[in-house]
Structure formats: structure tokens, C-alpha cells
Amino acid sequence: MKRPKKQRQQALKDSIKDNPFVTDEELSVEFDVSVQTIRLDRMELAIPELRERIKHVAVKTFEDEVKSLPIDEVIGEIIDIELDNKAISIFDVKPEHVFQRNKIARGHHLFAQANSLAVAVMNEELALTVKSELQFLRPVTAGQRVVAKAEVIESHPEKNRAFVKVVSSVDQQTVFIGTFEMYRMTEQSEGEAK
Amino acid sequence: MKRPKKQRQQALKDSIKDNPFVTDEELSVEFDVSVQTIRLDRMELAIPELRERIKHVAVKTFEDEVKSLPIDEVIGEIIDIELDNKAISIFDVKPEHVFQRNKIARGHHLFAQANSLAVAVMNEELALTVKSELQFLRPVTAGQRVVAKAEVIESHPEKNRAFVKVVSSVDQQTVFIGTFEMYRMTEQSEGEAK
DNA sequence: CCCGCTATTAGCACTTGGTACTAATATGAG
DNA sequence: CTCATATTAGTACCAAGTGCTAATAGCGGG
Q: Could you confirm whether the keyword Lipid biosynthesis appears in this record (chains A, B) (predicted)?
């Protein structure tokens, strides 16, 4: 068996990569070699045992939990808020938020922080964005901390409308400005999306 | 020890919840009882053993991997693209994209799909959003499929600027309109963020 | 044809972090 | 004091390994 070994090891690597939950025994059946051979292969390839692999995946998830939660809830951490008036949040730009090519933060993360803050300053989960205008003034890069300040600049409670202006900055320099026209849903008017 | 048992079990539950990676042995030290007591407690509380806990976390992560990847890369799946001209992407709204209260999709997901598409239609990772105007016309709810169509409506290659209009719809009904002023970076001009 | 080399397989002892079960001992309430 | 519950101890066993030694295959070259 002159080639098979290298081939098998490559295949083994791939197989484990896309299903880390496979045991040596299952692999030995898959590749029709003994369990020991699989073990030797893993050694040579420095692939850890099943339990360690699972643990790594789990630890990764567990650590991500903190940073993936805010992706769907409020983006950025709200550090100060006065309902219907103003609010401030901070958002630390991490490698996963930027373009790989130039390390500049993707626009939707800045928007998400600002929009989340605009929603939050209104009133807990009952506000929708109707319109908005955005300006991305300077590129933001990984490692920077973006401070967003939201202010309710106009309120028309009778029409359930309000305008919120959000200014985001890094080191006192403004990087983003957004104005949001918000619609405040009343409890009754909730159920009318097609 | 009349109360301690219930209290310990509650504390045990909490302890395992915020650190699923703890062994019975470590817990027995933490609560100053024997390992067996910890095991009995776990039985009563139907808490699985360490490895099973880790596995659950890992499986969860693994399944999430598919849906968390598009969050940071292109949001939505691009199904057609003509560079510098137009592009189409679809985005299936899932429960994790909506407000819990009213099941309406959070604005930043619609923005992210549109913005990603605007970036994509320009030229591979070298475009930045400068300004944009958005209109959220109708609420989108979980389960719906949003089709976004981007079109380059104006191009000023000499100024490295272009305008892209994105119209998103659900079942032929327009739900979102965004116009994006894009800046196309040249390879040389990349390195100038503070 | 045998020598040598790598690859493969086998076997055993030991490890972690448990389960399952039995039995002994506390401990506190009535 | 007694009974029930709680706790602890101890044993056998399991999965999925590691680590190590040793036997065997397969093959290419001289």
C-alpha cells in the first residue's frame, strides 16, 4: 500500500472535520482498517480524540454565546438609557465584524448598533423602523470601540411616530450618523403583518 | 439538614448552567458533599453527565454554524449576479431574526441583506457604503422569504462612486427600499483608517 | 529467495468521568 | 427511641480513549 496511507489520512482529516462526532471505531469501519491504524493516523495528524474534539467545539460555542447573543438582540452594550429621550451604547468591533480584505467594519454592524439603540430608546420591543438615512463618514476597523449616542429629536405621540438621531463615534471622531423615523406599535395594532 | 438539600440542588442547577464543563468531583468540593450526593442530586434533577452536557452544547454550536456563518459574510443567498449591474439574493426570515414580542423581523437584518448585496454587486469586498436611505414599507415576519434585487443606477468610475438601489419584496409585495451610495476602494487606498 | 522497511494489526494495562447498584451510616422529627 | 430520609462508601462495569510492546503483512531491491 504505497499511496493509500496518505490518501486515507487526508480523507480521515476531511471526515473528522465535517463530523467531529465520529469515533475511532466508526472511522475504522468507514476506511476498512483497524482501530489502531485510525489511532496511529490521528497521532500523525495530531487530531485529538473524540471527547477533546467535542469539547473544543463546545467551548467555542460557549464563548461565542456572549458575542452571538447580541447579534440578534441588542447589538452593542447599552450603558445609559432614558426612555423616550436618549441612550448610549458601545460596540467593540471584533475581527468577525470586518471585511477580511481591508479590515473595515461591515456597514450593517454599525447600522445594527444604531438601529437597535433607536429601537431601545423608544420603548422595549414595540418600535419599528419606518425610514432612515445613514452616512458612513469614516471607516471603522477591528479593535476599535464605537460609541453610539441616540437622541429622540422629534416625537408625535398622536401619530405613534418619533424621529431618532444616532451619532456614532470612535475616539471622539464621528464615524456614522443615522436618522431613524420610528413607528411605535400599540399592543392592539400588533397582529397585522401579512 | 432540613433545607440545605433543596438549596444545594438549586445552587447545583445554577452552577452547572453557567459552567456546564464542571465535573461531579469539582462540584462535590464546591458544595462540600460527597461525589455520590452530587450524582444523586443530578439524577433527581435529571441533569446529564458532563460528557453529555458538553455534547449538547457542541451539537448546538455545530448546527448553528451553518446559520451563523451567513450572518457575518453575505446575508442571504445570492442567486444571480452581474457585476457592476445587478444582483438578486434571497433571505429566509427565521425565528432568530424577529422580535420576540411581535414576530416582526428586525430592521437590521433587512438592511444587512440589502447592504451585503449592494457590496457584492460592486466588486468583491472592495466597496464601502458611504450613505444610504432606507424605507421599511411593510413588516416582514418569520417564515417569509425576502427577495432583494439590487441595481446599479448610477456609476462614476472616475470618482470611485456608484449608486445602488435595492428593492426587497415578499410575495411580489415591496417591503423595503434602500439606496446606497458606494465607494469603491482601490488596492492602494486601503490602508488609511486610523 | 531472503532481507529490510514501512504499514498494519493485536493485545494489555491504565485513565476519566461517569452509571448502576448495594450497603452502611448519619441526622433529624415525631 | 425509632423511623424515614439523606448522605456516604464501595464495588463492578462502560465508553472511548492513551501508551506501550509485539506480532504480522506486503513489498521492493539486491
A: yes
- Per-residue model confidence (pLDDT) at position B162: 92
At the top level of CATH, the class of B4-68 is mainly alpha
**For residue B155, what pLDDT band results from cuts at 50, 70 and 90?**
confident
Interface of A with B in 57-96 (CB under 8 A): 57-62, 64, 68, 71-72, 75, 96
Cβ-Cβ contacts under 8 Å, A191 against chain B: 102
Interface of B with A in 168-187 (CB under 8 A): 170-171, 173, 185
- State the Cα–Cα distance between residues A77 and A90, nearest whole angstrom: 5
Find the mean pLDDT for residues B115-143: 87
For B71-92, what is the mean pLDDT? 77
Q: Is any atom of nucleic acid chain C found less than 7 Å from the CB of residue B3?
A: no
Indicate the domain borders of chain B.
Answer: 4-68, 75-190
Edge to edge, what strands does the sheet with A86-92 contain?
A77-82, A86-92, A145-156, A161-170, A173-184, A127-136, B127-136, B173-184, B161-170, B145-156, B86-92, B77-82
pLDDT band, very low/low/confident/very high, at B74 (cuts 50, 70, 90): low
How far apart (Å, rounded) are the C-alpha atoms in residues A11 and A16?
A: 9
* pLDDT tier at A80, thresholds 50, 70, 90: confident
Q: Give the DSSP H/E element, type plus range, for residue A104.
A: none
Taking an 8 Å cut-off on Cβ atoms, the answer to whether B132 and A131 are in contact is: no
Q: Return d(Cα B13, Cα B17) in angstroms, integer.
A: 6
Comparing B18-27, B49-58, B185-194, which segment has the lowest mean pLDDT?
A: B185-194
CATH of domain A73-190: 3.10.129.10
Q: Work out the pLDDT band at B96, boundaries 50, 70, 90.
A: confident
Residue B182 has pLDDT above 70, yes or no: yes
Closest CB to B193 among A104, A116, A129: A104
Tell me which CATH code domain A4-66 carries: 1.10.10.10
Distance CA B58 to C1' C28 in A: 44
By residue count, chain B amounts to 194
